[in-house]
């Protein structure tokens, strides 16, 4: 178990479980299996999922901003930018993904990029 400390107040705001190697490996294996299903998901359905997630974030604005406020020590006003970036990004990428044309890879300035099927959001 690890304490989460508000850096502005040094107050312990939560205690969280830390995964051991076995739990972390199980999580990675599970994500790898899910990637197979997600990889077969249509672009339109992926966009719908992103918009659903955006809608859930909008409904839970106060809870999300409270987490940022307590975990980072930011003022309440300063949490607005993080929250709005999350919501706007989900809307933007839900539209952008519709322009995506599948390909095996993209080479840019000598670096090869391979499309990923997993999206990670960090608030």
UniProtKB/TrEMBL annotation:
SUPFAM superfamilies xrefs: ALDH-like
Ranges for domain Aldehyde dehydrogenase: 3-105
Cited Gene3D superfamilies: Aldehyde Dehydrogenase, Chain A, domain 1 (3.40.605.10)
Molecular functions per Gene Ontology: succinate-semialdehyde dehydrogenase [NAD(P)+] activity
Keywords: Oxidoreductase
Protein EC: 1.2.1.16
Source species, domain of life: Bacteria
Signal peptide: none
Family: Belongs to the aldehyde dehydrogenase family.
UniProt-recorded name of the protein: Succinate-semialdehyde dehydrogenase
Native source organism of the sequence: Vibrio variabilis
């Amino acid at each position: 178990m690890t304490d989460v400390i508000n850096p502005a107040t040094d107050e312990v705001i939560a205690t969280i479980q830390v995964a051991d190697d076995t739990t972390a490996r199980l999580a990675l294996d599970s994500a790898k299996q899910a990637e197979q299903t997600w990889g077969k998901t249509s672009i339109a359905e992926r966009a719908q999922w992103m918009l659903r997630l955006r809608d859930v974030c909008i409904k839970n604005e106060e809870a999300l901003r409270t987490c940022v406020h307590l975990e980072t020590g930011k003022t309440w006003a300063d949490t607005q930018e993080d929250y709005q970036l999350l919501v706007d990004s989900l809307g933007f990428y839900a539209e952008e993904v519709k322009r995506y044309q599948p390909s095996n890879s993209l080479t840019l300035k000598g670096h090869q990029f391979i499309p990923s099927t997993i999206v990670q959001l960090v608030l």
